[in-house]
Amino acid sequence: MKRLTLITLLIIACLVMTGCSSMHVTVKYDDEVQFSQYQTFRFVKPRHKDSQSVRDPFFTREAMQEIRPLLEEKGFQEAASMEEADLLIHFYAYVRNQADYVPTTYRRGRWGRVHRASPAHVVHYKTGTLVIDVVDADKKEMVWQGVGKGVLDRFDPSTDLVKAVAEVLKDFPPS
What is the C-alpha to C-alpha distance for residues 157 and 96, in angstroms, rounded to an integer? Predict the structure, then answer.
């Protein structure tokens, strides 16, 4: 029975680890906008909405270094100034500490005896949200938004958020 419990825990751990690597991405955009009219972009200083937003300057720089080549591959060029840009790129991220309570599990043994199979415990993890807003510079209206949410590495969540940039921008611009 101990071996069965150990195998079950290993399977659960593998499922959790494979689940950590994926981000759930949601994209919204204005159907009436012709994205082929845009050719240049410019980054806007990241906004920090509350105390849970990522304020790490290294994350900001790494995210910009990840976004820039992805947009350039899609035919956009970075403008020298805000006035020359067709699109303004806003991005920000949140990291939250989460905890899940896993209750005690029991098993029935010989002759109907009940034994504790595993004690109750708390699982701590971090979840993150990356938001990329694309704004029409002339109209000052949002034309596209990508949001990625998922479980992050507990010890280095910024790395997972930077990796999420590619997943969020995968379908930009919409066809």
Answer: 10
